[in-house]
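Lab meeting minutes (informal)
Scribe: AK
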Amino acid sequence: MPRKSKNYLSLPYNPKLKQRARALRKAGNLAEVLFWNQVNKKRFKGLDFDRQKIIGNYIVDFYCANIQLVVEIDGSSHDDKQEYDALRDAYFRGLDLMVIHLSDGDVKQNLDEVMIWLGEQIECLF
C-alpha cells in the first residue's frame, strides 16, 4: 500500500521535538521494540510505519501514513494521564487520524494476539 505523502507531509510538525524523538527511538522500551520488529520494513500488511513520529507538539509511538493511523503503546507512563491522553487523542482525531492504544503488557506477553487484533481493526476500518 503506497504511503500517502501528502497526508504525511501536511501534518503539523514541531522541529523543537526532533532531538527528543531521536532520543526516544534510541532508548526504546521493550514493548515498543517488540512491536517495531513486527511492523518495521512493511512487515505488517505491507504498511509503512514510522517510530516516534512528531505530529504537532506531540511525539507518537508509531504512525502509519498509508492509513493515517497512530498506535500508542500504553505503559506505566500513561498512569494518571487519562485527561492528557484524551486531549491528545482528540487533537489527532481533529487531523483525521485514527488512534489505537495497545497495552504494554499485552504487547510483551501476547504479541501474536495483539497483531491479529490490530489487523482485524485495520480491516474493519479500511
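Next up, CB showed the second protein from the same session:
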Amino acid sequence: MKRSVLFLLALGMVLLCFPRADARSSPPEKVLRISIDGAIEPILAEYVQDGIARAAKEHASLVLIRMNTPGGLGQSMRAIIKAILSSKVPVCVYVEPTGSRAASAGFFILESADIAAMSPGTEMGAASPLLEVAGYPVQVNPTLNRKIVQDTLAFLRSYVVRRGRNVALAEDAVTKATAYSAKEALKGNLINLIADSESNLFQQLNGMTITRFDGSKTTLHLGHPEVINYGMSMRERFLTRIVQPDAFFILLIVGVLGLYVEFIHPGLVAPGVIGAICLVLALYSMQLLPVTFTGILLILLAITLFVLEAKFAGHGILGIGGAISLVLGAVMLVRSPLTGGGVSLNVAFGVAIPFAVFFLLLARLMFRSHYWKAASGTESLVGVLGEVTEPVTQEKGQGMIFVNGELWRAVRATADGNGGQIPKGAWVRVVKVEGLTLYVEPSDPPAKRPHAG
C-alpha cells in the first residue's frame, strides 16, 4: 500500500514538471514582407503576385507591402490589385520611408489594401490616368478622355467603397490629380493609420479587427511577429535589371556592335552570337519601356554618319556629328512623365563615345581592306616590275621575265603593231596573272620612272 502511495506521489511530481498543453508558448505570427521600390511594371507585378501566393501557402498572418513608387503601367497595377483583393491573407500596404510616395498607380494599390498605412513625411495621390504614345502623353478627344476617366473611377470605387474609405477624396485624386500628405490622408479617411516605423506599425495593428474584402472579420495578433523578407527570384532580378533604361541602351549598343563586327569579319562567331542575344534582350525591354521613336532615329542616324565618315573621310565632321547624335539619341531614347525614367547622362556619354571610336575604327579598316593588294600569292605580282630574260610575244610558252627573284613565263598583254615582241633586257609591268603565266606590258626601267608628286 505504501509503495502504491509513493509511486502515485512520484508520478504526480513528474507530471507537474511538464507544462500543460494550453500553457505552452505558441509560435510567433508570420509576416511576409514584399518591397515595391520603383515603377510598376510586369516583372514587379509578377513578383508581388508570387509573394501573396507564398504567404497563403505558409499560413502567414499578414502580407506587408512596403511601397515607394511614382506610378507605372495600368495593366501591371490592375494585376497587383487583383492579387490583393483575392488574397487569403490580410494585406497591409505601407508607404515608407520618409520622403516616399504612392503616386499614380501606387495610389490605387494603396487604397486596395486591407490596411493602408503611411509613415510621416510621405505622400499619395496624383492619380489622373494618362494615355501615352512612345512614352509621352497625348491629347485625346473629350469623349475618349471621358471614357478613360470614368472607367478608372469605376474601378477605384469598386473596392474603395468595400474598404470603407472616402470615395469623394479618392475620386479627386483621379479627376483633379489631387495629392495628399500622410496627415491629410488620415484625416480624410483615405488610410487607416500613420506609423513611424515597422515595429510601431505592428504595435498599432496588434489586436486590431479588420474587415476583409469578402466581408469576413479577422483579428490580427502581431505582438512579436516573425518577419520573413520575400525577395525577387534570380529570374525576376535579372529581368528587372534589363528593363532599366541604362541597361536597355547598353544592350542595344552592344547588340549592334556585335552584329556589325560579325558582318565585316564573317566566321568570328562570338561577336555575332553575343550581339544577337543582346539585341533580343533589348527587344524584350523595348516591349516594357516607353521607347521614343526620336531616340531610335537619332541612334540610326549616328551609325549612318559613322559609316560615311569611315568611307569618305569627312575630316572628323561626320564622326563628331555621329557622336553627338548618339548621345542625344541615348538621352531621348526612354522617357516617361509617369516614371521620369531615362538613360542617365553618365551612361549616355560613357557608352556613346567609346562606341563611336570603336565603330569608326572598324568601319575604316573594312573600307581600306577593299583597296589593299594581296600580300602573298600570285595576285601580289600585279603591278610589279620585271626584266625580260627571253623575248616576250603574244604567244604563250616563249617569253620569260625575272620578277621578285624568280623566273616566270610571260605573255604580252597588248600588241604595238610591230609583232608585239618585247626584247631581252627590257622592263615590263605585270598587269594580270593567269595560273603560272604573267601578262605584261612594256615599262620604263625603275631608275627612269618619274617619282610621284
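CB comment: Residues 378-448 form a domain with the OB fold (Dihydrolipoamide Acetyltransferase, E2P) fold (CATH 2.40.50.140).
No objections, moving on.
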